[in-house]
Design goal:
Aspartate Aminotransferase, domain 2, 3-stranded antiparallel sheet, Aminotrans_V_dom, 12 strands, alpha/beta, 43% helix, PyrdxlP-dep_Trfase_major, 7-stranded mixed sheet, globular
Length: 446
């Protein structure tokens, strides 16, 4: 059972929090895991943790206790408890990500909000003539769609020149990513321009692959890129997140995807440096000018409970053998095993080497399914959900010139602690049945 809210907010918020919190001596059992996620639909093979994450029952209850404390006496809650509770959560995140200071960590709604905060500052650089018209922002072609829209809304509108780094897929090695990224920086610096911001995914969403962020950040430093923002929506709880090793100026990650928080919560790390301008929350309220962390903790009367349950989340995670490191290791090993099982069953292949994935992996779907467009992927996903009870995202890879009967459709499977092998067998059998029936996506369109 997670601790009550009082346990986390009445003490001294400056108390040191160990980077390796004490793990439970009695690890959580399979039955207890099943109970924690018993609210999941038992008729659905939910192998898509990457999209929305998963919150255990004990943490839903912890969140509810915070909500009731607010509703019981909101004046007392806002004056005496909210700031202390958020500071406690920020301190825990600061230790987990190896940041230098808690002031470098702000809590926001999600990674999309964090991107808006960073891109807003970049837009001001153009509108205030600190940057030259045509100076560049570099991002990966596989950047998340909402982040691309934010770049369009903030950077393009302000006069920035946006360069997308094309990436091949399937991928064979990190060298392919690094090579294309270097080419994009050359374009960005052509004709005397400056690259003002590089937006780098830590784990791309679709198609899914772990990006060599440390190497790309190092290249940016060598090429005199002004600012580096790492969009790691899938980062914490899914792959290694270390601010000192990565070395970016800004880094964001959701905590509701792979860190078991209720939606929605993310952190935004802003490196303390004279070269890093002061950022502001896009919702301006009474705390404007007191630093992003304080601004983000006071954006009006709203439900702050997702930001307050972080201590309880850490207690839940430490019931597992090895804590968060153990969870990540087992998720990675299992998703690779299940990915290889599916590829073997369908006679296809993985979208990248196993070392380039974390807790999600891409697998080619049989070419005979006739996935010929993004609309086909959406229709097939709905068909799998409604007819077979399988929830899984599907990606369309346009065929290259000269390709015949190529694999154009890929699925992205996730593995989290609640998943069972039967979830993946159910997916395998569904695809095998479609193939045996001679199904093609054209039938759905008709």
């Amino acid at each position: 059972m997670a601790s009550s809210p009082d346990h986390h907010i009445n003490g001294d918020t400056k108390t040191h929090i160990s980077k390796k919190p004490k793990l439970s001596q009695n690890f959580i059992t399979a039955a207890e895991i099943a109970a924690e996620f018993s609210h999941h639909d038992p008729n659905v093979a939910r192998i898509n943790n990457g999209s929305f994450g998963s919150c255990p029952a004990s943490l839903i209850e912890a969140q509810r206790r915070w909500q009731l404390k607010n509703l019981a006496q909101p004046d007392h809650f806002y004056v005496n408890e909210l700031k202390k509770g958020i500071h406690r959560s920020r301190t825990i995140i600061k230790e987990l990500i190896n940041a230098d200071h808690v002031d470098e960590v702000s809590l926001v709604d999600n990674a999309t909000t964090a991107a808006a905060i960073v891109l807003q500052q970049t837009a001001w650089g153009f509108s205030e003539s600190k940057f030259g018209k045509g100076d560049a922002v570099v991002m990966l072609h596989y950047a998340y769609g909402a982040v691309k829209k934010s770049i369009e809304a903030y950077v393009t509108r302000a006069g920035g020149y946006v360069i997308e780094v094309p990436l091949p897929f399937p991928l064979k090695s990190n060298d392919e990513i690094i090579s294309e990224f270097k080419k994009a920086l050359v374009i960005g610096k052509a004709n005397g321009r400056r690259v003002r911001l590089a937006v780098i995914d830590h784990i791309t969403s679709m198609p899914c692959v772990v990006i060599p962020v440390e190497e790309l950040v190092k290249i940016c430093r060598e090429e005199d890129v002004d600012q580096i923002f790492v969009d790691a929506a899938h980062g914490i709880g899914c792959t290694d997140v270390d601010m000192k090793r990565i070395g970016a100026d800004y880094y964001t990650s959701n905590l509701h995807k792979w860190f078991f928080c209720p939606p929605s919560i993310a952190f935004l790390y802003c490196r303390k440096s004279p070269k890093c301008p002061e950022l502001h929350h896009p919702v301006v309220s009474h705390e404007y000018g007191n630093g992003l962390a304080i601004e983000s903790a006071s954006v009006g009367n709203r439900d702050y409970s997702p930001q307050l349950v972080v201590p309880s989340v850490l207690e839940f995670i430490n019931r597992f053998e090895g804590g968060i490191e153990g969870i990540k290791k087992r998720n990675h090993e299992t998703v690779v095993e299940m990915g290889q099982m599916l590829a073997n069953a369908w006679g296809t292949h993985l979208g990248c080497p196993s070392e380039m994935c974390a807790s999600m992996i891409m697998i080619g779907l049989p070419a005979c399914l006739g996935i010929l467009s993004e609309n086909d992927t959406e229709e097939l996903r709905i068909h799998l959900r409604e007819k077979f009870g399988v929830e899984v995202p599907i990606y369309f890879r346009p065929p290259k010139n000269g390709e015949v009967e190529s694999i154009n459709g890929y699925c992205r499977i996730s593995h989290q602690v609640y998943n069972k092998v039967d979830d993946y067998y159910k997916f395998r059998d569904a695809i095998n049945q479609l193939v045996s029936e001679g199904f093609t996506c054209a039938q759905l369109s008709n």
